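Reply to thread "Modeling small-molecule complexes from scratch"

Following up on the discussion above, here's a worked example others can learn from. I took a protein sequence and the SMILES for pyridoxal-5'-phosphate and predicted the complex. Inputs first:
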Amino acid sequence: MTTSDSGSQSMTPAASGSAPFQWPSSAKATSGARGEALLAGIGNTPLLPLDALTRDLHHDLPTLELWGKAEWYNPGGSVKDRAAARIVFEARRAGKLTPGKILLDSTSGNTGIAYAMLGAALGFPVTLCVPENISPERKRILQAYGANIIYTDPAEGSDGALKIAHQYAERHPDLYFYADQYSNDANWRAHYETTANEIWQQTLGRITHFVAMLGTTGTFVGTTRRLKELNPTIRCISLQPDSAFHGIEGAKQGLLVGVSAAAAVVGSLQVVEHLKKDQRAIIVTILADSGEKYLSERFWNEE
Ligand SMILES: Cc1ncc(COP(=O)(O)O)c(C=O)c1O
């Protein structure tokens, strides 16, 4: 696993304290009852203590707490509900996702599930470019929500799916609203406005370290920007796997978490190893989704 620490970056401190995010009334008014309930259900996920994992570590530290933000409590089952909802809301507000247009994006699963769920609830069609080798669970969920799926070369991974989505968007600009989660600012802004403020409130402003996995980088960038405004001394550490993960470590705590959540926990424990003797550490990490969508993965049968 490679880590990078943005603790030394300087960002402008802003007023401390933060109000919980509220969807504007225009979002509620245009969403219908089901859409409104869905939007209201996104975010405000529990922060769970992962004390079973830290219990035997570093008794010489004055304070050591590890917390996981349980993002599978979102209605679509992952952290990506936040970004997808914000992308959809802003596109509708800006007149880009108008009736008759199809939302198009590339995804390896969770964002697609969120778009498909929102499309079914709010009444817009969704087309997703997805690497062919995503897990069968993800394929079935996307199908169940009625998304149109364009499978892309598994050997090319997310880059291949992104390339095909670009091509479709360029060829048919009148047909599609291209959501482009990789470059859409609504992605990181969702976390700036919701995830960071929730963490701040849930830790009563005590958080000292934030650890997150990178996909599109929306979660890390948005959460970090806001946390650094609230307290510039918070260390923010991003993680990228440098090899495949084997096993789902978070299960030790009685939580069946997904692969990236397990990696985030492993990364957080690496942060613990590097703490100084007298350092206070209240570490928060993102548990992006649960393990249920990975139960058919091959690694369960590997040594
Ligand atoms: C399971 C999981 N974890 C982490 C991430 C990373 O989130 P982000 O795209 O905000 O960097 C993703 C993104 O798709 C994901 O699906």
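What I'd highlight from this example: The chain has two domains: 2-75+188-301, 80-178. The pocket of pyridoxal-5'-phosphate is lined by residues 78, 80, 109-111, 213-220, 258, 260, 288-289 (CB under 6 Å). Questions welcome below.
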